[in-house]
Amino acid sequence: IEWESAIGIISYSLLPVPADTAHTVYMGTNVGIYAWPVAGPPLPGSTFPVGVEADTLGQRVVAMGYQNTPCTTCAPAIWALCENNGGGGSSGFALSYDEGQTWDVSGRRLGVSDVVFEGARFWLASDSGLAEGDTRNLDSLMYTASYKSLVTNKRIGPQPLSLGAEVAKDPISSAEVLSTLWVGTDSLLARTLDKGITWAVVFSNPDPE
């Protein structure tokens, strides 16, 4: 969904974050990210690109994510999923631990539309299928084999468009534990209760004749 704002840019995504950070809302646009400050009027307080020019990452930010990292001394991570905005650059993703001042940009170039987390682990909805990896090594990405088998058996569409995660706290360690991962495509909804070992197709809506 595209929204044209009063400041002459197109918005693709919004990310509210906890109030103990310098900004309360980030807006992904066709020219990078705008950030609303905690104090002051409800106008963008700053704008910044995702990565630097040498990263060759497109600046259309189609989705964002907020990840609580398992390291107790580490700051949470803001994720940006990017596409070419017509001015150059490649599709891909990046994360920032300092609220957008600097970025760790993945070397993997693929179209991505959504991201969810469990601790340092992440799952991406990509144009090549459901992918997963570890935040500590962004290029550790691999495609979820069990999801690929659902596609091979024609139970679901090949491209996940959106993801949802149900995450709880471990009562002993207080670590985040993923209880359910949801995957939405253009025709159905699927879920896994065991992090991708097995899947259930929850809803199917085949194209009408």
Describe the structure.
There is one protein chain. The protein has 209 residues and is mainly β. Helices cover 4% and strands 48% of the residues. The protein contains one helix and 17 strands. The strands form four sheets. It has a five-stranded antiparallel sheet with strand order 1-2-3-4-5, with no helix packed on it. It has a four-stranded antiparallel sheet with strand order 6-7-8-9, with no helix packed on it. A hairpin with a 7-residue loop joins strand 16 and strand 17. The longest helix is centred in the last third of the chain and has 8 residues, at 145-152. The protein is globular and about 45 Å long. The model has no long low-confidence stretch (mean pLDDT 81).
